[in-house]
């Protein structure tokens, strides 16, 4: 018995690697700077605390690009879209489309700053819109409209700046109210990604603003015999068809997607994806799913993008599908794009898996917060059926053909104690049982597992540098490992403990034990905040 325990501890430690300070990538650094929003609106005095309703919100694309300089040309305007699905929990959950009003509002990036778009919108798009108003009439707060079985706010003109600071991942709040009484039934927060980090200046010179765009137009005139530089501002889609804006363009020239990908594929020093799509700071592809951290994994190279359009692919309308890699029930969305497809009992794919390029779990902590709030885990909804169901279903109609037993039988990890200061890891009271917390099974083999428990960090500790620790004990405390130091982090609103970061065969770590996790600044642990987890294999 003891030999098995020490094998378990050794395996856990093996995957930790050398003790070192954990670096924060640019995405996490941006998340660390964002404080949780604290509202005081009177509407919330009427909030329904029963948890009978839930709402899950997301962006349609997972990233929106825009150019901040419009005096020369426009590639993409400020135009963001939030979608939300409302569900009434029950033995058989119900998708709600009637009797509710769904509202949205940006909590950050609330000034439409950092762009001159509204100075040129009439010349570019032929319509007058007030400052900080989008092409569809949306502002940074308002009502969402029912489309299909979810609610949508299309064309929100959010820009990537918050009081002068670059912030490509602002937060929006979505609130569901009873349409008759105004009572708040549910609310959530989601990321509204937006960036102007297109980096044209890396090849075309200038500083990325008017000079750069003027250089592009002059080169276009030189290569194509046009006279664009003397007729600014130019809307590229007036000539080049673009499904993103619904512009048909001219039939005798390439679409905008083909022109850009095709031309750049021909040059010797080909740009990378993040040279045009945002970007080395933004890093819009932020999913943490294994094997999905490379744009070309799904989209292919510049040459592939261009040749596929020449062979009939419609940009923005014919995109990679999950079934290109995944087999099984409800994986093939047919002619529907992922963002418009439905799966388990009519729930949209994005509702369970989140937005493209940030599929749960995401590297950006604030992306994961909705999933954590609903099921205690940053993975796709469904890892805990009680996110939507009021009891565990006893049939075989789980998502993608899985049953509850398929999802749960291989490993159960329970959060059985709330975060609280303790004295040298000693506990005085029997901990309370709680929901399934953080566990992530690989898609390829359900017999492999990653263990990366997470803790919410109180606002007064956020921004502090702290050491992360963990310890493993048999459930009867007959044997415990030493306290293991993972490394240092700067605490954000959520802290992750990478105990098993690589998918590991479950047969190698069988047992029933507790995993303790905690963070502290002091070496004597007098300021430690901890939680612990019951593991049953």
Summarize the structure.
The chain is of the alpha+beta class and 537 residues long.
Written account of the structure:
This protein has 537 residues and is α+β, with helices and mostly antiparallel strands. Among the domains are: 2-25 and 405-536, Immunoglobulin-like (Sandwich); 42-195, Immunoglobulins (Immunoglobulin-like), CATH 2.60.40. The chain is 18% helix and 23% strand. It is built from twelve helices and 25 strands. The strands form eight sheets. Strands 1, 4, 5, 8 and 9 form a five-stranded antiparallel sheet that branches. Helix 6 packs across helix 9 (302-310). The protein starts with a helix and ends with a strand. Residues 15-45 and 408-446 have low confidence and may be disordered.
Q: How does the major sheet shape up? A: 5 strands, antiparallel
CATH second-level architecture of the domain at 2-25 and 405-536: Sandwich
CATH topology of the domain at 2-25 and 405-536: Immunoglobulin-like
**What is the CATH C-level name of the domain at 2-25 and 405-536?**
Mainly Beta
* Helix percentage: 10-25%
Radius of gyration of CA atoms, rounded to a whole number: 25 Å
List key phrases describing it:
537 residues, Immunoglobulin-like, 5-stranded antiparallel β-sheet, 12 helices, 25 strands
List the SSEs and their pairings.
Elements: H1 2-14, H2 26-32, E1 53-59, E2 64-65, E3 73-74, E4 80-88, E5 94-96, E6 100-106, H3 117-125, E7 141-143, E8 145-147, E9 150-156, E10 161-162, E11 165-166, E12 171-178, E13 184-191, E14 194-195, H4 201-204, H5 210-224, E15 234-235, H6 256-266, H7 273-276, H8 295-299, H9 302-310, H10 349-353, H11 365-375, H12 404-408, E16 412-415, E17 440-441, E18 448-451, E19 454-456, E20 465-474, E21 484-490, E22 494-496, E23 500-505, E24 512-520, E25 529-536
Parallel strand pairs: 2-14, 3-15
Antiparallel strand pairs: 1-4, 4-5, 4-9, 6-7, 6-12, 8-9, 10-11, 12-13, 16-25, 17-18, 18-23, 19-22, 20-21, 20-24, 24-25
Helix pairs in contact: 6-9
